[in-house]
Amino acid sequence: WERRAERPVRVFISSGQAIPGWKPELVDALWTSFRRWSTQGVPVRFTRVSSASMADVVVEWVDSLPGTCIGKTWREDIGSEISAARITLALHDHRGRLLTPAMQRGAALHEIGHLLGLEHAGDRESIMYPQVWVTDIADSDRTALRHLYGIQATSAAD
Fold first, then answer.
1. SS3 66
2. d(CA 29, CA 114)
3. Neighbours of 44 (CB within 10 A)
4. pLDDT tens for each residue of the chain, 158 residues long
5. Alpha-carbon span 35 to 99, nearest angstrom
6. pTM to 2 decimal places
7. Fewest CB within 10 angstroms: 70, 97, 108, 156, which?
């Protein structure tokens, strides 16, 4: 999202009302996760749009994903710039159990990290650890994001 300082990334969050366990408040919780990544010094901002055709990013809900996966991000990259993406979030784990709100938040933050270009991290305290282990963004995640976008940290209190 290299040139997004001028224009926010447009996000459409679809309804999952046909999926057992989906609740309308999941949309607001997901939007809060997008806002958590909009950190000082990183030139990526998000705005919600009302249709998938207007979006750079479409978020969809599914009952479950293959294996133990609870979220998946697909990006279309042109050169070094991300031009479009889709995030898929599961409501149930591989055993059919409804994910807790904390696990859903962790999965959303993790997948948005991939959307922004971050890879998996080996530190269990990072939201980018391959499994949902923590449910919020760590300072190391923000540092990695600033480094990815070539920005020096301006403050430790973001």
1. coil
2. 18
3. 20
4. 555 557 889 999 999 999 999 999 999 999 999 999 887 667 788 999 999 999 999 999 999 999 999 999 998 877 767 788 999 999 999 999 999 988 999 999 999 999 998 999 999 999 999 988 898 999 999 899 888 887 765 544 44
5. 22
6. 0.89
7. 156
